[in-house]
Structures are given as structure tokens and as C-alpha cells.
Design a protein that fits this description.
With about 325 residues, this protein is of the alpha/beta class. It has 12 helices and 14 strands.
């Protein structure tokens, strides 16, 4: 394996000059830089990233911890964040807890090393002190921990109201809404469900909330669940759910001979690529993942560059995409 001295010899420069190019610690002429880069290519030289990060006190890596990589919202958001971080010279380390508190704790212990410069948390199963004493820049997604850690979240109150108004326009009488299991912490996405219930109940419309685990079902499992619910509660004429279960309800309703939207109005919540897997154009509350990712990256990078800065929390607007299911 080639060393930095081998590169210097091939390029005809001093080893310290190669080091300056790798670390960006001093200006080097373009001609010299090209010679060094050519020598590295010819020798297949791989820089020692660990040593460089220790020298610069930066790794150039941001960690993102999510409950499930398979979940369409988190995989889509991570894709946007990775691309935006890359523009700013950073790499993304994406990790999944699969709903395990122990895995979350273990990952946080790993991140406390010099391995990452900051962390984007889409999970929060531990005690608040575990996050508050974390010594590196951290941003929460969809969770407000007493205002001590900045967060980015979609405007779920507006999303819940938009969905409710759409159900009202469709003259629904009994609306089912699926959400993740509630925790003691303030999970801000629940605002959409609270606003949905409040708005519908003000108009005399019955609601039924059903809590499910993030990783409890795949698409087939959602299909089976949707079919069972529609058979057990045939009076349900409205459903709000994340994209994957919304698709499952669409398919189950068609299988049971229900007309959409006449017999069942369906509103997906997220608006990711998953909605493209069926022929029908599904009505959806769309979270603007591009704007969301821009705010996340801007906030975490500002915290890295200015450790004393108190970053503001951000709310990202949502929109209603009208489809054939309402």
C-alpha cells in the first residue's frame, strides 16, 4: 500500500507538501496540486481519513439515526439530506435502531467518539438527559425536548386540518386515522392527528385512532390489516394514514368492491414515492422533504461551525395534493 512519502517521491515534492494538499492547511500552486493528485491516482493512494480527522478535529461525517431505513419517509428524507450534505463537503452515516432502545443507546455511545461531527436524531426513546449531555451538535426531527435541542418538523397542525377539511368536503361520517405508538415525549407529528380529531368532531364526524409500531408491518401486512379493518368496521368511510398503509387501504377497498372515493375517502400523509406503485392518483398531505432537508443541513452545519449558537427550531409548510381518492 502506497504511503504519503511514495506520493511525494512520485510527484517530485516534499511529503509536507502532499500533507498540505490533503489537509488544505496552506495554499499550493495548481500545477503542484495536479502533480500530487496524478501521483495519488497512479499509486492508488488512499488517505488515512482517521489521522486527518484527528488532525483537523473534524471527520466530515454527520450521523443520522432513524427508527427504520425501510420506512419511505425516512429513506426519502435521508436521500435528500445526503445530497445536501455532500454539496457542503460532508458525508452521511445512516443508522437504524429498528425500534430498539438498546441499539439507540449503543449508537449514541459510538457517536460520542471523534467518528462524527454532529448527529441528526429521528428517534428519541431514551431519557432526555441522554441527549442534553451529548457533547456534539445535535438536531431533533419531529420532537421537542423542552426547547433545549433545536428541531425541524413539518407543520403537522396545518396538515391535520387540511385532511379534516377534505374529509368534510367528501361528507364522511366515520374517519379512521393510523399513527405510530405514542410515547411520553412530545412527538410533534401527533399534532396532525389531534387537529384532525378536533376539526372533525366539531363537525359531528366520528373518528377512530389506531396506533401501530413503525416496523410492525410490511406492505402485505398492511394489506391484511386494512382488509380486516374494513370488514370489521364497514361504516368507516374515511382513512388518513402514512403512504404505505394508505396504499394498502386503497387496494383492500378495491378488493372488497368499495368505490373510491364514494364509499371510502383515502388521504395519504407524507407524499413519498410509495404512492406511485398503484394506478390511482392518491390524495395526499405532502411533506416538503427538499425544504425539510435544507433546514436540517443548514441548522446542523451552523451548530458545527459555531458551537455557542442557539439554533432556532423550524416548521416546514405542508401542502394538499388533490388526487382521485377524495
Amino acid at each position: 500500500m502506497a504511503s504519503i512519502r511514495d506520493v511525494a517521491k512520485r510527484a517530485g515534492v516534499a511529503a509536507c507538501t502532499v500533507s498540505r494538499v490533503l489537509n488544505g492547511t496552506a495554499s499550493v500552486s495548481e500545477e503542484t496540486r495536479q502533480k500530487i493528485e496524478k501521483a495519488m491516482d497512479e499509486l492508488n493512494y488512499i488517505p488515512n481519513e482517521l489521522a486527518r480527522s484527528m488532525f483537523k478535529q473534524r471527520s466530515g461525517i454527520i450521523a443520522m439515526l432513524v427508527p427504520s431505513i425501510k420506512h419511505p419517509f425516512f429513506s426519502s428524507l435521508a436521500d435528500f439530506i445526503e445530497k445536501e450534505l455532500y454539496v457542503h463537503g460532508y458525508k452521511l452515516m445512516l443508522c437504524s435502531t429498528s425500534g430498539s432502545i438498546q441499539r439507540e443507546r449503543e449508537y449514541l455511545n459510538i457517536f460520542k467518539s471523534n467518528l462524527v461531527d454532529g448527529i441528526i436524531m429521528a428517534v428519541n426513546s431514551l431519557e432526555e438527559s441522554a441527549y442534553e449531555r451529548f457533547e456534539k451538535p445535535m438536531i431533533m426531527l419531529d420532537c421537542n425536548l423542552s426547547g433545549k435541542i433545536p428541531f425541524v418538523v413539518s407543520d403537522h397542525k396545518a396538515g391535520g386540518k387540511m385532511a379534516a377539511e377534505e374529509f368534510i368536503k367528501n361528507q364522511c361520517h366515520y374517519v379512521l386515522h393510523l399513527c405510530a405508538e405514542k410515547e411520553e415525549k412530545e412527538i410533534l407529528s401527533y399534532e396532525s392527528h389531534r387537529m384532525l380529531e378536533e376539526t372533525l368532531e366539531c363537525h359531528g364526524i366520528r373518528t377512530r385512532g389506531l396506533e401501530i409500531k413503525w416496523n410492525h408491518f410490511d406492505l402485505k401486512g398492511y394489506r391484511d390489516m386494512a382488509e380486516l379493518i374494513l370488514q370489521t368496521y364497514p361504516e368507516i368511510d374515511g382513512v388518513m394514514a402514512a403512504d404505505m398503509p394508505a396504499v394498502a387501504f386503497y387496494e383492500a377497498a378495491r378488493k372488497l368492491g368499495k368505490k373510491i372515493p364514494e364509499d371510502l375517502c383515502i388521504i395519504a400523509y407524507d407524499g413519498t414515492y410509495v404512492l406511485d406503485i398503484i394506478e390511482g392518483n392518491v390524495t395526499a398531505i405532502v411533506q416538503n422533504l427538499e425544504a425539510y432537508s435544507l433546514e436540517v443541513v443548514e441548522t446542523i452545519l451552523n451548530m458545527i461551525s459555531n458551537s455557542e449558537m442557539l439554533a432556532e427550531s423550524k416548521y416546514i409548510p405542508v401542502t394538499l395534493k388533490k388526487g382521485e381518492t377524495s
